[in-house]
Structures are given as C-alpha cells and as structure tokens.
C-alpha cells in the first residue's frame, strides 16, 4: 500500500511551494497544455490562490523522487475560491451560508509520458525535472498515490474544522472517486474549464467513513492518520521523519501573509483526527 513506498509532504518552506509549482508546470503546461508555458519564465506554474493554500507533494521514499502534488485552498473571509470565480459553485445549495468550504485543486501526477532525465552522469538543466528531483510513476501506482493525496488533504481539512470541500473535476475522475467510496454531491452546473467539469461537494468526514467501510486496506490507511503527511521542513532536517509534527514558526517568507494566517495555524498535534464520529 501507499505508506510502504510513498509519503506526502506538506510544503511549509519556500522550496516546498516552489517544488509544488514546478510539478504543476510540468503537468498543466507541458503535459496537458492547459496553461501557456511561456507565461512562467521560471518553469513554475503559479496563481492567485497559492498564498491561501496548503500544498502537498508526494515523494517516493525509495527513490527520493517527487512524483505528484495537490493542494487545498482554504476558506478566507472576503476571498472567493477558484471555483467561485468560474461561477461554477452554487452556494445557495449550502445548508449553512456561513459554512467553511475548502477547495481541492491542482491534482497532478507525473507519469511516464513526462520527459524525466535519468542520466546521472549528465548535469541536468536548471529547470529540468531531474534538477528538481522529480520522477515519474507508472499507471498501477497512480491509484494508490491518488488515495494518499486524498487522505492528506482530508485529514488536513478536518484538523482545521473544514468538514466540506468542493472539487471541480472531469467525469472520469469523478468515477474514480466514487469507486473509492467517496460520496459526491453536485454543487453547481457543468462548466467548461479545460474540458467539461462538474463541481462536487465532498463531506470529508463522511468520505473517510465511507471509504473505510468499502475496503479494509483503506480503513487501515486512515487508521494511520498521523502518517497522512509530514512537513517538508522536517524531512529536510531528518529524512526518516514520517509523521505530522508541530509547526515551528521560523519561515520568514510566510510571515504576515494569508498563507501564515490560514494555512499554518493552528498548530497540529501528533494525534489522529481531533473530532469523533458525529451522529
């Protein structure tokens, strides 16, 4: 399963955020052509929500290569979510207008179609995948990596009392999520955005319970909640660290920013989900 080969790192350093953006550039600009690569001179795909997001990157613990990424855009008073700007989210459907809703987006996996230079005898180009330590994974591993990223984003959200997240996704991706046991509730009209996509609301706690009931392997995965992700700053200091740790506020890049206000606080504890099953 996922934890035997991979780990998810939460990007709490400038390097981590930049790495996340480099993976996005590879997938959305080069592999899929969704964005103009010429608009990003440093080969890092960025947008207006990066300082409001928790960025997650998946590392192959055997090869030490970075292979996938996703992010959770956190709610911030006075700032819309990406899906709001596309008029794809019908907030009138919310039972509580004040509900705190996050958005899971920028879901990307480096697959074997990407040009990954594996020649260790050649100095890699500055913006190449090899220079960033980025590698690819095969199709068989993509399902478990997807599950690992969902666990990370879900547990991160629940630790911050964000019970619901919205996702603007394609029909094939929606089918895969349903296969995992995730209940999807349509939350707006089908929208043209890099192809036809549908907004779905996901109850994070209900999804964890539903996936756990469907598969004993997934249930075991979520029982290891404290291993859902590790801060990339901790990995840089000790590569054997493999679980959530307290945040040490010593990253000056994020001081006095929305990132620090919404993403890094409150500090986390080395424990499983704070709230119990709700009835």
The major sheet is characterized as: 9 strands, mixed
Oligomer designation: single chain
Distance from N terminus to C terminus (CA atoms, Å) equals 31 Å
Shape summary: globular
Quick one: how many beta strands?
Answer: 9
The tally of helices reads 10
Strand content: 15-25%
The poorly predicted ranges are 244-257, 269-279
**Helix proportion of residues, in percent?**
25-40%
| CATH architecture verdict | 3-Layer(aba) Sandwich
CATH class: Alpha Beta
Task: Look at the helices and sheets and give the structural class.
Answer: alpha+beta
Total tally of structural domains: 1
**Mean pLDDT over the full residue set:** 83
Order of helices and strands: HEHEEHEHHEHEEEHHEHH
Blueprint (SSEs and pairs):
Blueprint: H1 2-5, E1 6-10, H2 14-31, E2 53-60, E3 66-73, H3 82-85, E4 101-109, H4 129-132, H5 139-159, E5 164-169, H6 171-180, E6 185-186, E7 191-192, E8 196-203, H7 204-214, H8 216-223, E9 230-231, H9 232-237, H10 258-262
Parallel strand pairs: 1-9, 4-5
Antiparallel strand pairs: 1-2, 2-3, 3-4, 5-8, 6-8, 7-8
């Amino acid at each position: 399963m996922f934890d035997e080969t991979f780990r998810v790192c939460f990007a709490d350093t400038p390097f981590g955020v930049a790495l996340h953006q480099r993976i996005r550039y590879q997938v959305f600009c080069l592999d899929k052509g969704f964005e103009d690569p010429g608009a990003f001179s440093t080969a890092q795909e960025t947008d207006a929500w990066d300082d409001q997001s928790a960025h997650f990157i998946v590392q192959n613990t055997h090869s030490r290569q970075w292979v996938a990424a996703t992010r959770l855009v956190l709610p911030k008073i006075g700032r819309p979510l990406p899906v709001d700007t596309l008029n794809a989210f019908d907030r009138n459907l919310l039972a509580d207008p004040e509900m705190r809703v996050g958005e899971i987006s920028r879901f990307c996996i480096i697959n074997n179609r990407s040009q990954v230079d594996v020649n260790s005898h050649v100095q890699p180009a500055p913006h190449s995948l090899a220079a960033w330590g980025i590698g690819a994974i095969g199709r068989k591993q993509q399902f478990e990596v997807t599950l690992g990223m969902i666990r990370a984003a879900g547990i991160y959200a629940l630790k911050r009392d964000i019970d619901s997240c919205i996702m603007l996704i394609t029909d094939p991706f929606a089918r895969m999520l349903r296969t995992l046991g995730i209940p999807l509730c349509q939350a707006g009209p089908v929208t043209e955005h890099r192809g036809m996509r549908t907004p779905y609301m996901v109850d994070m706690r209900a999804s964890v319970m539903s996936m756990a009931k469907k598969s004993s392997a997934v249930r075991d995965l979520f029982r290891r909640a404290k291993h859902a992700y590790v801060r990339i700053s901790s990995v840089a200091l000790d590569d054997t660290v493999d679980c959530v740790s307290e945040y040490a506020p010593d990253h000056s890049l994020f001081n006095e920013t929305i990132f620090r206000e919404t993403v890094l606080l409150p500090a986390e504890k080395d424990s499983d989900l704070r709230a119990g099953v709700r009835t």
